[in-house]
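Technical appendix A lists one of the benchmark inputs used to test multi-chain prediction within the project. The record comprises two sequence entries:
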Amino acid sequence: MTENTLVDLLDRIVDSGAVVTGDVIITLAGIDLIRLDLRLLLVGIDESLR
Amino acid sequence: MSGERGLCAYAITRGTRWDLVGLPELRAAGPPELIRHDGLALVVTEVDTALFGGLDAEEPAEDGLLAKLVRDHDAIVRAVFEHEPVLPLRFGTVVADEPAARRLLSSSCDEVTRWLDRVAGHREWGVRVDHGAQPVEETPLTGLSGADYLRRRRQSRLDGRQLKDHQAEAAQALHSALAGLATDAVHRTQRPQTLLDAAYLVQEANEDAFRRAAAELGEEARGRGATVHATGPWPPYSFTRLELGVAG
């Protein structure tokens, strides 16, 4: 259990956290797309490490 | 490129006693501030909203904007987490100004206070178990009769299936033991090769037992050819299925 890699961080953070609705000016509307891309990226990185 | 100014909101914590001493230098965001209201505090930095506009176009990379913003987000949430229970907000949440921040705190006060009380004294740990590779065919196939060859192939397929079953059993045993030592456990989104991808909310008093069980049963799963990836401690990122809205 050592320093977190960027992959671990993205995997933890991008899809988590309480959602604020209503009084916000951004909630990163495109984040779901980014997340999908990341998932692909994560799988790719995982596989290349094996 | 410049756009509207806003307050990027990272986390909500208790409004008492705490200040922002010892926060690491941030990569992309300005210095964080606390907005206190109703016994809670919202941790924010002032941002140009155009900053987030660049994310869609960007390829995720180690030194890219997304990486910087995500590392800032984690650094801020962790800095709070070292002092007080923390509710992380969704990455990239921006509110208009201080009055909007105060409205958010007052409208969600009861729910957030209950949530902070629940996670106080806990840290999150992650464990992922993936299927390992199939065993390699060790004996050479030359010189086998056709029937022997077919029998060998069938046996090898059976071994592969059995190995997968054994790995799945080990992952299940690992999860049962860890969930038993945790206050809460959630399954995360699974990928095809994944046998277990779970997050555990563990009380500090149970951490030694938890880590021992993770090490021992993780080793058992590795012995059966699975790969085990453990991370932590984390702020309670995976236990934040809350929606905080301003009513009306």
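Strands of chain B lie at 5-14, 33-37, 40-48, 86-95, 122-130, 184-187, 194-203, 227-234, 243-245. The helical segments of chain B are 50-53, 65-81, 98-107, 109-119, 146-181, 207-223. Comparable benchmark entries are summarised in Table A2.
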